């Protein structure tokens, strides 16, 4: 057994043991299992939110996207910082409402704010559809990392099955508590590994970051500017907007807001978390360093840029540490996604079908759904035909369609009715689905647009239609209610 494989196996066993140990002394009812008993302070909330946002997407996607598309990869840094800033105002009222009503899921929030169980079912369905590509992303990343850093001893498929099994077991047993404890170890390891790689690789191969970019500017200047078409300024800005608004619309990131002990935790994190985006920049440095050192990667292979350069640079024991950090970067957020998704199914789909909600039975169903959801995600993960970043952008296009209705529900005046919120979500999600199925773009949908606007992310077009439909239906609904009321 080589040193890398030994370290990876030890990390898998350690993650499992830590996850199982986290439930000691806790009566694991559905509230403890899904939202940690609403007991996490600022430190745990920081590692939870970092664990959710900084995933294999950061570890592999950041370096891979910089390798393939240059500075266009910086959209990741900007949108996460934007999302963290929005959380300063967005998450505290969500927490207050969630605590007052004992809410467990994102769909519960919509049910309470719009007094509509059917709308909650719609939101739960959108959340489930959105979570599939994000879960697949984690398993895909896990397979890539373990196969590469074990020097092929463990295949991608075997790695996915092992990681999925570990994740599934400790999620069923410990729920959110297990995720919080493993997130602490994961954040430390990922931060240390990526910081070292991002600083060392440019120095080792080019003599520093400045000389590296000077060489890229001479040999491939197009990597240091946004293109006129494709990854253009219009694509860059619209993708930032779409992803930034959707950062806390994922069921698992929204659910983390219900796990805090106090609202102050969100404001502390909103100040500190943008600094953590430096991790992404350092991962991108490795991608830039790999442009000349690992040429020829195309398609989904671009996600291998960081790992390929690391394998040809370091001894096996250090490659094992990189693999261990990447492994945790998949397992920790993946476990939170499983918790959120299983709770949605149990509480908001099963709960709709049964008039009397039994918390014990809902908890049992949520745990039962964990292996089912895991198997579905693993099945999709074994198809590696799409890059990690593109997989995530597709998921964001779906989940961000919930943002307008959420924002309207927090207003002191009634902006959107239940019918308007539902209509807007359906219009937005339907548009996204149509563009994905037909492989349409803004240029093909609206060819009359000026050239600079043809690369706008289609998810933004869907979002604009969403808002228009929501406000139009709500306006007619309110006028009808006003005319039907005795005073009207």
List segments where confidence is low: pLDDT < 50 over at least 5 consecutive residues: none
Averaged pLDDT, please? Answer: 86
Total of DSSP H or I helical runs spanning 4+ residues? 21
Q: Nearest-angstrom radius of gyration?
A: 22 Å
Give the amount of beta strand, in percent.
Answer: under 5%
> Helix share of residues?
over 70%
Order of helices and strands: HHHHHHHHHHHHHHHHHHHHH
Question: Can you offer a commentary on this structure?
Answer:
This protein has helices spanning 3-21, 30-35, 42-53, 56-69, 75-101, 106-114, 117-149, 156-206, 209-219, 233-246, 251-256, 264-276, 278-293, 305-313, 316-353, 359-381, 388-399, 403-409, 418-438, 442-445, 458-484. With 488 residues, it is mainly alpha-helical. The protein is built from 21 helices and no strands. Helix content is 76%, strand content 0%.
Keywords:
488 residues; mainly alpha; 21 helices; 76% helix; globular
Q: How is this fold's topology laid out?
A:
Blueprint: H1 3-21, H2 30-35, H3 42-53, H4 56-69, H5 75-101, H6 106-114, H7 117-149, H8 156-206, H9 209-219, H10 233-246, H11 251-256, H12 264-276, H13 278-293, H14 305-313, H15 316-353, H16 359-381, H17 388-399, H18 403-409, H19 418-438, H20 442-445, H21 458-484
Helix pairs in contact: 1-8, 1-15, 3-8, 3-12, 3-15, 4-13, 5-10, 5-12, 6-7, 7-8, 7-15, 7-16, 7-17, 7-19, 8-9, 8-13, 8-15, 8-16, 9-13, 10-17, 13-14, 15-16, 17-19, 17-21, 19-21
Give a brief description.
The protein has 21 helices and no strands. The protein has 488 residues and is an all-alpha fold. The termini are far apart.
């Amino acid at each position: 057994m080589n040193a890398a494989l030994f370290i990876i196996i030890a990390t898998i066993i350690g993650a499992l043991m830590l996850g199982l140990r986290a439930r000691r002394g806790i009566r694991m009812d559905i509230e403890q299992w899904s939202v940690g008993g609403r007991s996490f302070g600022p430190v745990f909330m920081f590692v939870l939110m970092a664990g959710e946002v900084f995933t294999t997407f950061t570890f592999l996607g950041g370096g891979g996207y910089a390798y393939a598309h240059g500075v266009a990869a910086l959209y990741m840094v900007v949108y996460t910082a934007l999302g963290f800033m929005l959380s300063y105002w967005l998450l505290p009222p969500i927490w207050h409402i969630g605590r007052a009503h004992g809410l467990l899921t994102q769909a519960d929030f919509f049910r309470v704010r719009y007094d509509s169980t059917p709308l909650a079912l719609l939101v739960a369905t959108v959340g489930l559809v959105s979570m599939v590509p994000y879960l697949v992303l984690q398993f895909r990343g896990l397979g890539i990392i373990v196969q590469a850093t074990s020097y092929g001893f463990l295949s991608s498929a075997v790695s996915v099955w092992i990681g999925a099994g570990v994740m599934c077991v400790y999620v069923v047993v410990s729920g959110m508590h297990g995720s919080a404890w493993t997130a602490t170890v994961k954040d430390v390891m990922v931060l240390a590994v990526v910081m070292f790689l991002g600083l060392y690789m440019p120095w080792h191969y080019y003599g520093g970051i400045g000389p590296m970019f000077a060489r890229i500017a001479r040999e491939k200047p197009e990597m240091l500017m946004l293109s006129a078409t494709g990854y253009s300024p219009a694509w860059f800005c619209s993708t930032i907007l779409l992803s930034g608004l959707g950062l806390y619309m994922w069921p698992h990131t929204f659910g983390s807001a219900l796990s805090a002990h106090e609202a102050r935790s969100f404001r502390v994190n909103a100040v500190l978390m943008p600094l953590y985006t430096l991790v992404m920049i350092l991962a991108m440095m490795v991608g830039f360093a790999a442009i000349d050192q690992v040429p020829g990667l195309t398609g989904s292979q671009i996600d291998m840029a960081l790992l390929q350069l690391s394998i040809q640079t370091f001894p096996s024991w250090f490659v094992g540490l990189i693999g261990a950090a990447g492994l945790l970067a998949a397992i920790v957020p993946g476990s939170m996604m499983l918790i959120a998704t299983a709770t949605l199914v149990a509480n908001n789909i099963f709960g709709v079908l049964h008039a009397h909600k039994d918390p014990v039975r809902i908890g049992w169903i949520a745990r039962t759904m964990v292996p089912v959801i895991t198997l579905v995600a693993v099945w999709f993960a074994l198809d590696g035909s799409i890059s990690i970043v593109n997989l995530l952008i597709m998921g964001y296009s779906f989940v961000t369609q919930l943002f307008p209705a959420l924002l309207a529900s927090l207003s002191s005046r009634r902006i959107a009715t239940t019918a308007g919120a539902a209509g807007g979500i359906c219009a937005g999600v339907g548009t996204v689905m149509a563009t994905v199925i037909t492989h349409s773009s803004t240029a093909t949908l609206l060819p009359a647009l000026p050239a600079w606007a043809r690369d706008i992310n289609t998810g933004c077009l869907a979002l604009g239609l969403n808002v228009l439909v929501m406000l139009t239906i709500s306006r007619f609904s309110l006028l009808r209610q006003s005319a039907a009321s005795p005073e009207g």
